[in-house]
Structure formats: C-alpha cells, structure tokens
Amino acid sequence: MNIRKSKDLFMKNSIFGVAGFNIIIVFLIFFFVLTNSVKFFTDFPIGDFFLGREWISLSDKYGLLPLFMGSFWVTLVALGISVPLSLITAIYIAEYANHKTRVRLKVLIETMAALPSVVLGYIGLYVLSNPIKEFFGLNTGLTALTGGILLAFMSIPTMVSISDDSIRALDRSYREASLALGANKLETIIKIILPAAFPGIFAGIMLGFGRIIGETMTVLMVTGNAPILDAGILSPVRTLTATIAAEMGEVVQGSTHYYSLFAVALVLFAISFTTNTIADHFIHRSRKIMGK
Fold first, then answer.
1. Cα–Cα distance measured from residue 228 to residue 265, given in angstroms and rounded to the nearest whole number
2. Are 215 and 151 in contact (CB under 8 A)?
3. What pairs with residue 62 in β-bridges?
4. What is the pTM of this model?
5. Are residues 115 and 216 in contact, defined by beta-carbon separation less than 8 angstroms?
6. Could you read off the pLDDT tens digit of each residue along the chain, which spans 292 residues?
7. Residues ≥6 apart with Cβ < 8 Å to 94
8. Cβ neighbours of residue 141 closer than 8 Å, sequence gap 6 or more
9. CB 111 within 8 A of CB 225
10. Which of 58, 45, 50, 23 is nearest to 255 (CA)?
11. 61 - beta bridge partners?
C-alpha cells in the first residue's frame, strides 16, 4: 500500500471515528434525559403532566400546557415576523442585488447571527420593552410579543442564508425558459423560482423554527416568566426552555421537581428531533431538484 492510499485510509477512519463519537454523545444525552424523565413519570401521572393546566412547583403541580402555550405564542410571533422578512431578503439578494451589495448584505446577516443571545436580551429588556408597554397600554413590556420580536431577529440569518443558497443554486434554464415565454422577472420569481426552490426554503424555515423553540437566555430575560395558560401575545409567558434554565439551578437534586425538568427537556428534545428530521428531508429533496 502506497503512502497516498495510507493517508486516504487514515482520513476515512478518522472522520468515521469522529462522526461515530458525536453520535454516541447525542445518544448518551438522550439516554440521560430519558432515564431521568422515566423517574418523574413513576411518581407523577403522565396524563396530569401533558394535560395539566398549572405549573406551580411549590404545590407539586407540573402541568405542561402553560409552558407549551408560552413557547407557542413566542414562536408564532417570531415566525410571523421572520418568515416574510427572510423570504423577501433572500429574493432580493439572489435575484436583484449586484455582487457588491450581495456581499455587504451577507456580511451583515452573518454579523446578526454572531450576536450573543444575552446581548439581545439586554436590548429587549432596556430598549424594546418600554415602547411595547406604552404603545399597547400594558402593565409590563415583558411579553410574548417582546420575546417573539427578538427571536425573529435571531432566526432571520438561518432562514435567509439557506433560502438564498436554494434560490441561487437553481439552474439558469429555469429563469431563461420563463423569460423566453414572455414572463417578466416578478412573474418568473413567483411562479417558477419560488416553487422550484421551495424544499430548500422550507428547510431553512424549519431550521429557523428549531432556533426559535430552543432559545433560552433571551426568552428568560424578556418574556416575563409567568406560566399562565390563558396568556396571549401581549401577556407575560414562560417557555419550556426558560423553565429549565430558571429552576434547574435551585431545585433539590433527586426530587420530583428535579425530574420534572428532565421531562420538559424530553419534550424539547422530541420537538427538536422532529424539526431537524423534517428539515433534513426537505434539504435532500432540494438537492435532488438541483441535480446534486
């Protein structure tokens, strides 16, 4: 065996080893969360957990619905803002912007992605919450709307980057055939480009959703942390991630409350796994359309 083949074999085995190690780490994390969640469900009815309307740890009430609704409202606001903005931005970058403008916008978007979540939390706490409080006449500006706006800001870079790549990766024949048949540029984008790039765009939206549902620090700082089932967009809420972050540091290890937080983590794990699986499916579908 020559040196070149030896190097290729070494690299192949090294990459396989690193990939296998990462899979083992993820499996161990899942196993750790699952085993601790099972301990919770041996002491607490599973139906009361998933259908419970109150989360009051001091009274041993661990209902998931208030936390789930908190995550729902924040995610709804974030997706309602980020999806249209990301789509418009990606279309502009891919179809209208010249090279110089495209490079500048990409740098700006990548900078947005690099901002620490705690910095955005401070911006929401001291800059965004008071205008929302005064504009809607609320008692507090720490609401699902405040958290949703900041999470939209955080998810836009992921959505824009993947959508832009999907649109630009399409073969030029899509555009040329449409224009040759008499369609203008806007008609070509709406009726040809967007449907053809939809799998990639949808994958970007799903990954952005995963970013939103998994964010912890920002929502902990700006959503008010009130586990209320009947809350709305303009009410303080508490999300699944914020509950784990706020209570794990003070809970008695080995108690029912301690294990209940692992049950919440298991729900988050299931949501993230489902989201990434759907996104991965559409990314593969997009690559098939592009012929890669």
1. 19
2. yes
3. 55
4. 0.86
5. no
6. 577 888 888 888 899 999 999 999 989 999 999 999 999 999 899 999 999 989 998 888 999 999 999 999 999 999 999 999 999 999 999 999 998 998 899 889 888 888 888 898 999 989 999 999 999 998 888 999 999 999 999 999 999 998 998 888 888 888 888 888 888 888 999 988 898 888 888 888 988 898 898 888 889 999 988 888 887 899 999 999 999 998 988 888 889 999 999 999 999 999 988 888 888 887 777 667 655 5
7. 164, 167, 168
8. 128, 129, 130, 131, 132, 133, 134
9. no
10. 58
11. 56
Tokens of 227: 């586990």
d(CA 9, CA 5): 6
Residues 201-212: b if buried by 16+ CB within 10 A, e if exposed: bbbbbbbbbbbb
Tokens of 159: 């959505």
Q: Which residues contact 174 (CB under 8 A, 6 or more apart)?
A: 188, 192, 193, 196
> Tokens at residue 57, please?
């740890």
- The residue whose two tokens read 């784990």 is 244
